[in-house]
Amino acid sequence: MTVTKNKIVKNISKNIQISESEALMITDAFFRIIKSKISKNIVKISGFGSFYEKKTPKRLGRNPKTKQEHIIVSMKKPVLKVSALAKK
Predict the structure, then answer these.
(1) Which pTM value belongs to this model?
(2) pLDDT digit string, tens, across residues 29-47
């Protein structure tokens, strides 16, 4: 099941009875905090999981239509490792 940002906003809005625009501001603020902190540390949320940054290596990519090859540069990606409690 895919959880989208829009679904999260609607759920927050419904559960705590606020407008969707207020729920969107809360959700955006949460993600901004996570993004700003993971470049320096691991961000742990008790009972939920840990966010951290993973560096992907430079690699060779290929356009499936044209079969043209190109280099995909190394980049940093946010990763969530879900806690055992949340998995249950």
Answers:
(1) 0.70
(2) 999 999 889 988 899 999 9
Alpha carbon separation from 38 to 7, 51, 79 (Å, rounded):
24, 7, 9
Residue reference for tokens 């940054």: 53
Q: What residue has token string 């998995």?
A: 87
Per-residue pLDDT at 2: 85
Q: Which long-range contacts (CB under 8 A, 24 or more apart) does 53-57 make?
A: 53/77, 53/78, 53/79, 54/78, 54/79
Dist. CA 9–CA 37, nearest whole Å:
22
Taking each helix axis as running N to C, give the angle between helix 20-38 and helix 5-16, from 0 to 180 degrees, rounded to the nearest 10: 120
Could you tell me the two tokens for 84? 């055992």
Specify the amino acid at residue 67. K
Distance between alpha carbon 40 and the CA centroid of its chain, in Å?
A: 16
